[in-house]
Design brief:
This protein has 4 helices and 6 strands; from the N terminus they run ααββαββαββ. A hairpin with a 2-residue loop joins strand 3 (75-83) and strand 4 (86-93). The strands form 2 sheets. A 4-stranded antiparallel β-sheet has the order 3-4-2-5, covered by helices on one side. By secondary structure, the chain is of the alpha+beta class. It has helices at residues 2-7, 9-27, 54-69, 99-112; strands spanning 37-39, 42-48, 75-83, 86-93, 124-126, 129-131. It is elongated, with a radius of gyration of 28 Å.
């Protein structure tokens, strides 16, 4: 093969040009992101409850939500926080589970709960995304203030 290419220089150059063109066209299909985002196996349920003590938040918000979510497959662990005026439930999912499907199941289970206090707001379920900066640029120099 090498001997044949050495004897037929036009074919070798033509093959080289085809490969260069093909490589150049492939670079147009490469996905580029300035700030790459990735998804965590995590859901967060937040429920504002104005004027409530942490004990009231735990009894009237956290306990009903935790008991409603116990049977959902794909939930690895739940961590709840009761603060004055708000409840937060952090739901860790099994690795490789379908986050959107579990989020829909969590939403429907929470919607079935009818014993929330009137003063509490509607629970918000979010799936946090992490965005990390790739590069920080700092410009420094003597310049007049504008």
């Amino acid at each position: 093969m090498i001997r044949w290419m050495a004897e037929h220089k036009v074919a070798a150059n033509l093959l080289m040009l085809i490969l260069l063109f093909w490589g150049g066209m492939s670079t147009l299909n490469i996905k580029q992101e300035l700030f790459p985002a990735f998804e965590l196996d995590l859901l967060v349920v937040a429920v504002p409850y104005s004027g409530a003590t942490p004990e009231e938040v735990e009894e009237s918000i956290i306990v009903p939500i935790e008991s409603a979510l116990e049977g959902i497959e794909g939930i690895k662990k739940m961590t709840s926080t009761a603060r004055e005026g708000a409840a937060s439930i952090r739901i860790e999912l099994d690795e490789g589970s379908n986050r959107k499907l579990i989020q829909d199941e969590v939403q429907s289970e929470i919607d079935r709960i009818s014993i929330f206090p009137d003063e509490s707001e509607t629970p918000r379920i979010t799936a946090p995304r992490i965005r990390r900066e790739v590069l920080n640029i700092v410009v420094y120099g003597d310049a007049p203030n504008r």
